[in-house]
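In full, the data:

***
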Amino acid sequence: MLRITYTNAKVERYFSDFSQMQKKVPLDWIRSIKKHLNHLAAADCFGDFLKLGLGQPEQLTGYNPIRYSLRVSANARLIIEPNATQDTILICEEIQIKGVSDYHGSKENWYIP
């Protein structure tokens, strides 16, 4: 089972209490985020999750370590960071949730930092 951690206590608070999250983002985003978290938790490793293509996962460029995004809405993305290198990404068993962001354009706009 894929282990999910959070970048800090603030992010963990929002992702563990969806009523708190509802103060920051729309309800339809929360439904999408819950679905992504359930799919991630059900995967044995990150490679299994990527093979399914759920949430249209895409690797973000310009980040070190590697980051991926999952579609929450047209512009908002759930940002995750696998605890892996490019060589071990498919067998990675731990990811870190960074938050929800609109990363389109020249700067990031974090909804949940």
